[in-house]
């Protein structure tokens, strides 16, 4: 009996494109078509749904794991949306400044567009 090599499972954009091209197939069949299966010694095909679903989540760029690194309870996460406050201010929360690696005292130049605000960091003079 000749041993066949199993295909490498698809990941990233290749995985997303393949899943979209498979249309109305079942989840299990899509997983199989994308290489997320194993064949037992007895020739039984087993679909690895957890690996397939995790690969889809990764390919979509969805972050499910906590990024608090054990510091406190985590709190709210950045939603990439803000709302003008009743006093007319826009508040950019610490989740954004931490993600950008900003520190107290960092300065920015504000440029207004039609419907956007551009912040350009001003480098401290040496």
TrEMBL record:
GO cellular component labels: protein-DNA complex
Domain SpoVT-AbrB: 79-124
Coiled-coil zones: none
Alphabetized GO MF terms: DNA-binding transcription repressor activity; transcription cis-regulatory region binding
Keyword terms: DNA-binding
Name of the molecule in the record: AbrB family transcriptional regulator
Taxonomic lineage: Bacteria, Bacillati, Cyanobacteriota, Cyanophyceae, Pleurocapsales
